[in-house]
Amino acid sequence: MILHEEISDKYSEDDLIIRASDAHRSHLHSREVNAEVASIAYGVVAECTFEQLPYFDTTTSFPPDVMHDILEGVIPLLLRQLLLTLHSRQIVSVQNINTELDLFSFGQNDKKGKPVKLSLKHLNAGTFPGTAIQKWCMFNFLPFLIGHFVPTEDEHWQHYLLFREIVDFVMSPVVKKSSLSHLQILIGEFLSEFNRLYPGNFIPKLHYLVHYPRLLAEFGPLRSLWCLRFEGKHQYFKRLARNVCNFRNICFTLAKRHQQRQCWDFCCADALHQSYEQEGSCVVQLSSTSLKDIILEKCNIQASELEADETILKVKKLTVDHVKYEVKDYFIVDVVHEDLPIFFKILHIIQFRCTWILCGKLYFGLEFNSHLHAFKIEALHEWCTLTAGNEVDYHALDAYEDSDGCLYIAPHHTVYKVKK
User: Residue 285, Cβ neighbours under 10 Å: how many?
Assistant: First the structure.
């Protein structure tokens, strides 16, 4: 559905009139005089059924669902328009993109959302294949896939990078109030450029973006309120319905099976999974490892206090407080100069005397490559340790190497250093 022209050229809430209770009642009253004119003038088609509830206010703001607005709405629309434009200008073809998808090696954290191959027929028909996460993955990794094909100053590419910056703000689990005015400017610029670059393709979900700065100030980080987790829960019921193949009373069947599973989960002594979980463990003599010195320093133990047969437990994966750590993962452990992150690469996960220690190396962000929308990083040679839970952001990241051998990391959202 293409948005009405009177709304598609409004790029800020300052240009709009937010519906208020008194005005809404006046609009409802105008329907009694002339319903057709009222619906066109005010957008009020009918009285809401919930109006009969004494505690309900139709004009109350509700948090938006960034999954449907952005992951299922704006991102596929923007990607489709961008890729069709690049294809028509013979900068990069759909076949080139599919070839790059086959050749590109996604990291251990990103490969779960690996995008599906594209079809020019689908793009021309107005659809973009894949799940919400697969579309988000394509959106994030497009610079690594085709960035070397696209000229740096291409206006369509710059428009895509502008929306990357907006999505980083919106998807962040922490948002500074001082950044909301900047976000409002970015959204206005993005919508204005979209109308210029892709005329006639403005949809309602693009218009919803103008309200995001106010809703972020009102509700906080919107990622905490999206429908993705509810969709994940719903996936269990859809999968179960296909497996049981009993549709005589499908509601009863699903409810009973779900309650049985909940009872099984709650029978566990650790129903909330607060204890740690580990995978791929092995026992190693402490004296035989090169990490002996940093382990003792971390635990504040002298070498003379060790027993002769002291051992350590090494694992490949560890889950602590629902945060997953795996060898070769990168985590942001600090942010300097407000926007330059410091990364920690896990090389060993060790338990020594009931204490979990993450051993690895620090990687400093040298610069931000705007064309790739990623940080160029470089490692320090010294080993260091990290205690699980002391990272700034709990999302594990992967690093990617370009043709020149330089390492890049593209965080999936803006990261701020939060005082604990």
Answer: 12
